[in-house]
Amino acid sequence: MTIIVASSLAGLVARAAVPGGWLGIVAMFLVAAVFAILLGLVAQAWVASVQIRSFSRRPDANAAVGRLFEVYGWRARLGCKLFRVPLPKDFDAGAGKKRSS
């Protein structure tokens, strides 16, 4: 009796786990892939914002943060916006951008 109940429960769990068959598996994979990409981008911005926050306490904060903006680029700007990192006084975040002529 328990074998019959266990096998029917296993069948129910297998059907409930993947609602659309192969299409459900592909959808779950795509959701996981998009989530992993977004998590990777946010992690890069977080690392840049932590470094900017620690370097902004130095006496030569403008130069140190400027070098970080040159190294990290868009990740530093995104990290400052997402995590509300205070920049040193008189620092221009746009000055670190490369200009094409």
Structure description:
With 101 residues, this protein is mainly α. The protein is built from 4 helices and no strands. The chain is rod-shaped and about 75 Å long.
Which features characterize this protein?
101 residues; mainly alpha; 0% strand; rod-shaped
Brief description of this entry?
With 101 residues, the protein is mainly α.
What's the structural blueprint in terms of helices and strands?
Elements (H helix, E strand, L loop, with lengths): L1 H16 L4 H34 L5 H12 L1 H9 L19
Helix pairs in contact: 2-3, 2-4
Number of strands: 0
In the predicted model, the low-confidence regions spanning at least 5 consecutive residues are none
Tell me the radius of gyration. Answer: 24 Å
| SSE run | HHHH
Task: Tell me, briefly, the overall form.
Answer: rod-shaped
What structural category characterises the helix and strand content?
A: mainly alpha
First and last CA, distance: 79 Å
Fraction in helix: over 70%
Mean pLDDT: 81
